[in-house]
Amino acid sequence: MSSLTNKRVLLGITGGIAAYKSAELVRALKTAGAEVRVVMTSAAREFITPLTLQALSGNPVHHSLLDPEAEAGMGHIELARWADLMIIAPASADFIARLAAGMGNDLLTTLCLASNAPLALAPAMNQAMWRDTATQQNIQQLLSRSEKKPLIWGPAAGEQACGDVGPGRMLEPLELARLAAEQFASGALAGKTLLITAGPTREAIDPVRYISNHSSGKMGYALAEAARDAGARVILVSGPVNLPCPRAVERISVSSADEMLAAVQARINDCQIMIGAAAVADYKVASVAGQKIKKSADEMILTLIKNPDIIATVAALPNKPFVVGFAAETNDVENYARDKLKRKNLDMIVANDVSRSDIGFNSDDNAVTLFWAEQQQALPLASKHQVARGIIAAIATRLQEKP
Ligand SMILES: Cc1cc2nc3c(=O)[nH]c(=O)nc-3n(C[C@H](O)[C@H](O)[C@H](O)COP(=O)(O)O)c2cc1C
């Protein structure tokens, strides 16, 4: 089975003479098992017909950003989320300039802005255009990005369609398909199974009421996606959240901490890594009322008892996986995090300062510090997706270092 099997590749085609080779690239990607959707710029449609690409990809070709009908079908944000990998081949000098400037003036540039999938550019242009200072500066600008830095595949040097000889030829379709396959084969967590707990738990008071917390599950879900993208098989044990199940992730939905522990225990023996990102309620109600409690007394006292410590239970297993915990602290973050790391026998802890107003439970951003052994690594304020990738990369490095 190819590493491209069932992978979703969004192929962007821009207005260059090499666009005719994009048809062959679609075929090569499809033959390797990928699902392919094509997005064309207006200029690209002057070089090759959408019909050819529709027939080869087996999917309608996307072109217009401001088309209500297209938006009602697979809208641009949906398309951006759909992709596991975006390849722009050929990438024209003009498109590269627009990308470097952060423009979103057509469907393809907007998708590049909106997608978190890795982006690869296969530049193709006349050698003088490639060598031009503006083009070179645009490429350098893109490569200097700390986030969403695109991969630049090519260009090759040789004879060009215009008769010139030099750098600027698009890499051959089979070579581009090979590079695409490499993206998925070299996942840092390939062959590993990883279990993540995410979201809050709900502790019942009676059949209609419960105790819970503000966890949105966003960080845990972003970690599940990042681990999947790094090649891991991912089992997501999730408390009640308003998030769709990430693609190619196995989700087990639970409600209470007891249910979460049972789901984790049922699957943990298959796993080499466990990340406890759930905000598990520390306490549960000692005796849950079988019927709705009536509002009669002026005062009500609930007796709470401690919930099981899921992550410590896993970390105490004789064959324990690599266990990563979270510490949400409001003060003295490092001390509390290091104490928890030791006390619970964890391999790594992800600490965040929830006293900050710019990050936290429902936010789309986060900033964390990772602690392990005597070391630490700060991941500065970024989207939860970016932070998740950083955490997964650090876990993969630690796993490689461990005997
Ligand atoms: C015949 C012809 C061939 C072209 N080939 C290329 C090319 O290989 N690479 C390139 O960067 N621009 C090429 N261009 C110029 C682009 O088509 C032009 O910059 C266009 O605005 C690109 O639009 P797009 O980036 O939205 O697709 C060519 C133009 C013509 C007329």
Q: How would you explain this protein's 3D organization?
A:
The protein has 403 residues and is an alpha/beta fold. It has two domains: 8-185, Rossmann fold; 193-401, 3-Layer(aba) Sandwich (Rossmann fold), CATH 3.40.50. The protein has helices at residues 19-31, 44-47, 50-57, 68-72, 76-82, 93-100, 107-114, 127-131, 133-143, 173-185, 218-229, 257-267, 310-315, 333-343, 384-401; strands at residues 8-13, 35-40, 85-91, 119-123, 151-152, 156-159, 165-169, 193-198, 203-204, 210-211, 233-238, 250-253, 273-276, 283-285, 304-306, 322-329, 348-353, 365-372, 375-383. An eight-stranded mixed β-sheet has the order 12-11-8-13-16-17-18-19, with helices on both faces. Strands 2-1-3-4-5 form a five-stranded parallel β-sheet, sandwiched between helices. Helix 14 links the parallel strand 16 (322-329) and strand 17 (348-353). Helix 1 (19-31) packs parallel to helix 3 and helix 1 (19-31) packs across helix 10 (173-185). The radius of gyration is 25 Å and the shape is elongated. The protein starts with 7 loop residues before the first strand and ends with a helix. The model has no long low-confidence stretch (mean pLDDT 92). The structure holds flavin mononucleotide. The site of flavin mononucleotide has 15 residues, from helix 6.
